[in-house]
Amino acid sequence: MDKEIVTLSVEISKQRVSDLLVSAFEGGSNSWYLIEIFDAPTDAKEAASEFRHATYPISTDGGVWVSNAKEERRGSKDYKSVRVGWQRCKEALRIMSEKYPRHFANWREENDDADTGDCFLQCCVFGEMIYG
Hints:
alpha+beta; 3-stranded antiparallel β-sheet; 3 strands; globular
C-alpha cells in the first residue's frame, strides 16, 4: 500500500502553549536552559505580566532569548541562543507533532507534564530533542 503525506491544520490555544512554557521553564528543562533576555512586547498590558517567561513568547511581538549556556557552553561551538517568540512556538509545535508525536498527543489531550514541556522547549531552541 502506498503512503501519502497529509498536512493537517490544528487549532491551538495560546494559553496551552503558555502552559508548555511553564512546564519547561519551571521544571522540565531546568538542567540545560538559561533565559538570557526578556524581550518585552510593545503592548503595555502584555509587558506588565509577572510571568514574563510564559507570556512574552505568546504575545504579538515579545519573546525570550533562551540558551543552553547553563552547561557553561558560552563561547563554545555547542552554545546556542535563540529568540523564542510566537512564530518559533508555532514551528516548535509542528516539529513536535512530526518528530515526537507521543509528546504532541499528550499535549493535545491535556496530559502533558514537565517532559512534554522540555520536548517543546528543545524543539523551540534546537529544532529537535538533544537532551534526554
